[in-house]
Amino acid sequence: MVKFRQSSGNITSASNKQEKVINKLIQKVSFSKMAEGSSSRSNWKREGDFRLDIQGYFNDGGVRYVNLQIQTGGDTYSHIEVPVGVELGSTGHIQDAFEMSMKSGSIVRILID
Question: How far apart are CA 72 and CA 102, in angstroms?
């Protein structure tokens, strides 16, 4: 079962126009499992001025996570943490986490029960 946990973060509020572009970028997410990469990766996916970046990997509580952020310039508009190597069953979980982060202004971590 997939759950979401929110924590405070430095997330920039998006205007209605920016939200539309960010939502198009979120819809480009077409994976339900994140594999381990070797390093950070900027401009992984793009839409207009916005980019989806892999900011790096970290361990917490015995689980490996990847830090994904939607950014433009130096501002972050959505920030999620996805467990590495775990099949989530649907691309919708990652898309939902990005949207939740953008709307709430929080970092959203995907948890697996």
Answer: 13
Do residues 32 and 53 lie in contact, with contact meaning Cβ atoms separated by under 8 Å?
no
Residues 24-81 pLDDT 10s: 999 988 777 777 775 666 667 889 999 999 898 999 999 999 999 999 999 999 999 9
Q: Specify the residue for token string 């467990």.
A: 83
Amino acid at 52: L
Residue labelled with tokens 């508009």: 77
pTM: 0.91
φ and ψ of 30, to 5 deg? -125, 35
Question: What SS3 state is found at 38?
Answer: coil
- Greatest CA separation for the chain: 40
